[in-house]
Amino acid sequence: MIQAAAPALPTPVPAPLPLREILPWAVFVGLLAVIALYFVSTEQGAVALFADNYVHEFTHDGRHLLAFPCH
């Protein structure tokens, strides 16, 4: 007995993402990354935006993990 071939399924085509939708989110994430890098790398007391050592102590382990000296 001869079997009929299965019907061919259409190949899905991914929809293109417009740059106008991605760009604001990319800028926002980039800004958050720069702010996080500032607090991890340079917020140490000598050039501190905030008084006391709260930010320094909060980011202390991350600073050592990323090889930024702080002692």
Automatic annotation (TrEMBL):
Transmembrane segments: 22-40
Domain of life: Bacteria
Keywords of this entry: Membrane, Transmembrane, Transmembrane helix
Pfam families associated with the record: CbtB
Keyword hit for Membrane: yes
Protein's UniProt name: Cobalt transporter subunit (CbtB)
Species for this entry: Goodfellowiella coeruleoviolacea
